[in-house]
Amino acid sequence: MKTARGFFKPLAIGAPAPWRELPARVERMIHFVPPHLDKVRAKVGEIAPTVDVILANLEDAIPADAKGAALAGTIALSREVDFKALGVGLWVRINCLNSPWHLDEVATLVEKAGDRIDVIMVPKVEGPWDIFYIDQLLASLEAKHGVTRPILLHAILETAEGVMNVEQIAGASPRMQGISLGPADLAASRAMKTTRVGGGHPGYRVIEDPHADGSARASVQQDLWHYTFAKMVDACAAHGIKPFYGPFGAIDDPVACEQQFRNAFLMGCAGAWSLHPSQIAIAKQVFSPDPAEVAFAKRILEAMPDGSGVAMIDGKMQDDATWKQAKVMVDCARQIAAKDAEYAALYGF
Ligand SMILES: CC(C)(COP(=O)(O)OP(=O)(O)OC[C@H]1O[C@@H](n2cnc3c(N)ncnc32)[C@H](O)[C@@H]1OP(=O)(O)O)[C@@H](O)C(=O)NCCC(=O)NCCSC(=O)C[C@](C)(O)C(=O)O
Ligand SMILES: [Mg+2]
């Protein structure tokens, strides 16, 4: 691995200096848009003010014969909407690094939209070597085209090997902004027997012992993704980048979508993907801390101004550790309030 000083060295002469701290951005939902569909792309101007990030998707869900149109649509989109003025992130998901498309995509995106694209999402990342490659490629292209700040990288965690290497992926470059759990490819990669895109499965349960009277035995559905979330969140938190939940494919089940997003939120994730307009509000509500929780967290901070000691609040013990938990909650709420007037009012900032 690189030396401490070498980690932040620009990888190409003339490339912008790498980020030392990630830009502080609210990213509760990453809204996926198929940029080759003019009809959908034409709506982005009205959708953008309602989301934190718009992602132009070039990979899965874009037909092989529409990859060129999706790339052209992405460049057009980057010019049609002033995402910076709206305070909305513009991300692009490129095709995977062994695909015939990614090289032209990265070269075109940096040349034609380098200063307008905030994050490039890389699918099927298997290990740090994938990040080293794209990091070097981007630095050379940014130097060539005079891009003024580094484009960040976001990895999708969607293969068994990627999960095995997630800690090294998270720490592979100062460009790393975050990692998303990709449940569909990951299920296929692990040979899990489910065709669902995220969420639980009625067959994944634990069951009571047999009853002497032969009565029915209670069983409870378990979370298929808990281990993966925990591994991803630890890797991201340790390296100061952000963990996300990816897609929830049951568009027709907003209740299960909310539950999957809430599991991710409670486990430490910063946001999730919205595949459909109906999922935007779900992600916004779930990944904005509950105003009652924020109010309680404020009471903890007030009870221990210097963050040390012990206090009882409504019968619950508070100490240095819960002060830190409360600070996480209040800092997140403050960041959201700065961007979202509705939540600024709800949080009382
Ligand atoms: C699912 C689909 C086909 C249903 O699209 P639809 O048109 O059939 O749905 P609808 O309910 O009829 O649409 C209602 C209205 O919303 C519009 N609309 C619909 N979707 C969007 C959107 N995203 N953004 C903006 N507008 C949208 C749509 O055009 C329509 O407009 P209209 O009323 O004027 O006719 C559509 O929502 C879509 O294409 N969503 C994106 C799917 C996608 O990007 N999938 C890939 C990410 S998941 C993945 O890759 C896995 C992963 C990580 O790799 C791994 O786990 O392995
Ligand atoms: Mg995938």
Automatic annotation (TrEMBL):
This is CoA ester lyase. Keywords: Lyase, Magnesium, Metal-binding. Residues 51-265 form the HpcH/HpaI aldolase/citrate lyase domain. Mg(2+) binds at residues 158, 185. Gene3D superfamilies: Phosphoenolpyruvate-binding domains (3.20.20.60). Pfam families: HpcH_HpaI (PF03328). Substrate binds at residues 93, 158. Its cofactor is Mg(2+). GO terms for molecular function: lyase activity; magnesium ion binding. InterPro entries: Aldolase/citrate-lyase_domain, Citrate_lyase_beta/mcl1/mcl2, Pyrv/PenolPyrv_kinase-like_dom, Pyrv_kinase-like_dom_sf. The keyword Metal-binding applies. GO terms for biological process: oxaloacetate metabolic process. Belongs to the HpcH/HpaI aldolase family. It comes from the Bacteria.
